[in-house]
Amino acid sequence: MPSSDLRQASTDLTSPYPHLLKPLDLGFTTLRNRVLMGSMHTGLEDRAADFPKLAAYVAERAEGEVGLIVTGGFAPNLVGWLKPFGGKLSWPWEVRPHRAVTAAAHAHGAKICAQLLHAGRYAYHSLSVAPSKLKAPINPFTPRALSARGVERQIDAYAHAARLAREAGYDGVEVMGSEGYLINQFTAARTNQRSDAWGGDAARRMRFAVEIVRRVREACGPDFIVIYRLSLVDLVEGGNAWPEIAAQARAVEAAGATLINSGIGWHEARIPTIVTSVPRAAFADVTAKLKGEVRVPVIATNRINMPQVAEDILAGGKADMVSLARPLLADPQWVRKARTNQATRINTCIACNQACLDHVFQNKRASCLVNPRACAETELVYRKTAAPRRIAVVGAGPAGLACATVAAERGHQVTLFEGSGEIGGQFNYAKRIPGKEEFHETLRYFRQRIDDTGVTLCLSTQVDAQALRNFDEVVLATGITPRQVDFAGADHSKVVNYVDVLSGRVVPGKRVALIGAGGIGFDVAEFLVQEGASPSLDPQRWMREWGVDTSFESPGSLTKPQPEAPAREVWLLQRSPGRPGAKLGKTSGWVHRATLKAKQVRMLGGVEYLGVDDEGLHVRIEASTQTLPVDTIVICAGQEPRRELFDALKKAGINAHLIGGADVAAELDAKRAIDQASRLAATL
Ligand code: FAD
Ligand code: NAP
Ligand code: SF4
């Protein structure tokens, strides 16, 4: 029996999540629980001047009782930079700023490792190097093929960076061997066409990885954590098959790895691995497969966002630790809340990527849609007020909920009015979209927050100006109204709007045209083509649809995708020329487009709407007119601010703050709504 199994035998069954909270003895050091904060590039790693902010961010997660923290990636040399002037650890003077970060983790009882990440051909600059001169499909830069001496230099750079990490106070390093970065480029035939000692058969391809682990161990001694992040499923053509992956795991273990973390999918893979429609813990079974191959503890990852999900993985013997990255952006107190049996108070990561990964791809600092304080810990502070006031917040959508609860937490006396019978505003439509089930969690969190902060909630209360006279501050978060269209036949009985459909008031026919292909048009299309239970709730079904080999044996773990038949025939239309969906999120838009393509949705740009009659929707596309023989036309044509109350208040001489959709409806999303609301509440 592996030693990690022996340790599990003495689990404390009185704690709410006994396997999750059980310390992990690594021989020379002990982690206080099984939660690893996975590496996330936040944008604070790139400039020494931002390290105090990085330290504050780390301190909050360590104070929240995370066991082991892994930093965002630091390149071991210049050529390994992800982008020019990105985070790097190769020169002696780069050590000092890290000390505040490691001290912050240690002050709160957490261990911390620096991730060493060499981008290889994913580097966004012209100095990039790789095993072979092959451009990545997601990067315009072509790398230079490394010479044999160049390969040795990269290995030395890893060992040197690990030594510097130790000097900076890190308890260890994570060697990033997955996600398609340099080491993974060596291990896979897809990117390694070398015929020297570093390429050819699988044994030679993995030599680079093994040598790095061996030399890092040699450089840093036996009492230093070395995590190896191993690509368990490459999800690309030319990726490794299981026997090669298992051999690599055994070899890095023998070379000195303390822990093996799971890597899931290359960045260039066309199978989603972390967006919200990926089922929770979808890839835990491949970590379980790895556990049978090695004796060192193994770490499961991807879409583990609630304690019970993590506990089930650990209790089921699938892994020894779990890695959570985005869930700790969303709630730094995640582990403490789990330990104290307060899972209903967890601000759950909804895997939207909107404020974290999408920001990083736009060279902006990461944050979190549901927690705008993430990476802004020193700037957005919710101080207790010295002068409590009576505050009315009108509208319990994301903006109103965030504003009311932050203001009440600060000590104000807050009344939250909501016209409908439930909190949530448009999130009540979002949560019905297949693949957006996580949105329920945000509503559960806010329900609990309302109770905890003492907000007085008045549901089914459509307030008017008169009712708001006696408050010291009035905040209007009244949201939006769907935009009307004005082409001929817009009042035909076939024409409805997205609220009619998502609320269940109207059940569209079998052939449907959607007018408007923004975020809501895409969501409604997914709602219409998918009938019955969502595949996002069933990992096996989801993997079949996307073409993941559920035995994880085949090269890249790929198999032929088998999408289920669409429930309806759908046309998704926009007036602007070009491909619908171009403005969707950078890291999630392609998933929406691929999902609809697999369901044969016709996505058309440059459409002129000529009118609706009993025959259907008449359109002109590239000078040719045609009739789409549809039963229902759903308008998803954007939104207008809902301001009638604001105007009435103005007339009555009452000042009000406007937030969320009521302020600016154009391009509004929940990220902006919650951020704006929280920032206002912090100043009231
Ligand atoms: P709303 O959510 O519109 O809330 C306004 C609230 O005010 C409503 O509950 C309304 O009943 C109440 N109200 C209005 N007038 C009064 C009154 N006089 N008295 C009392 N109550 C009143 N955003 C994202 O960021 N990511 C997504 O993935 C995403 N998906 C979406 C999917 C769908 C299907 C939809 C419809 C929206 C989606 N959105 C998404 C958009 C997001 O939901 C909105 O941006 C957000 O809800 C706006 O928040 P808000 O608080 O400003 O307004
Ligand atoms: P949107 O993104 O602004 O899209 C509106 C669509 O309607 C566009 O395709 C637009 O394209 C079309 N349109 C606008 N005016 C029209 C008119 N008068 N007649 C016909 N078509 C018209 O708005 P949305 O889809 O309503 O989404 C609202 C917000 O919710 C968005 O800002 C989005 O960020 C957020 N949201 C996000 C997600 C997500 O997954 N992140 C999901 C859902 C919603 P043309 O002008 O080219 O026709
Ligand atoms: Fe999770 Fe979205 Fe927050 Fe990122 S922005 S951490 S995906 S909730």
Average of pLDDT:
95
Which overall shape is indicated by the principal axes computed on the Cα atoms?
Answer: globular
Report the biggest beta sheet as strand number plus sense, adding barrel if it closes: 8 strands, parallel, barrel
Radius of gyration: 26 Å
Percent of residues in beta strands?
Answer: 15-25%
Q: How many E strands?
A: 27
Low-confidence stretches: 1-11
Distance between the termini: 59 Å
Taken together, the total number of domains comes to 3
Q: What share of the residues lie within helices? A: 25-40%
CATH topology of the largest domain: TIM Barrel
Bound molecules: flavin-adenine dinucleotide, NADP nicotinamide-adenine-dinucleotide phosphate, iron/sulfur cluster
Q: What is the strand arrangement across the widest sheet?
A: 3-4-5-8-9-10-11-12
The CATH superfamily of the largest domain is Aldolase class I
CATH class descriptor of the largest domain = Alpha Beta
Q: Briefly note the structural class of the backbone.
A: alpha/beta
Counted by DSSP, the helix tally is: 23
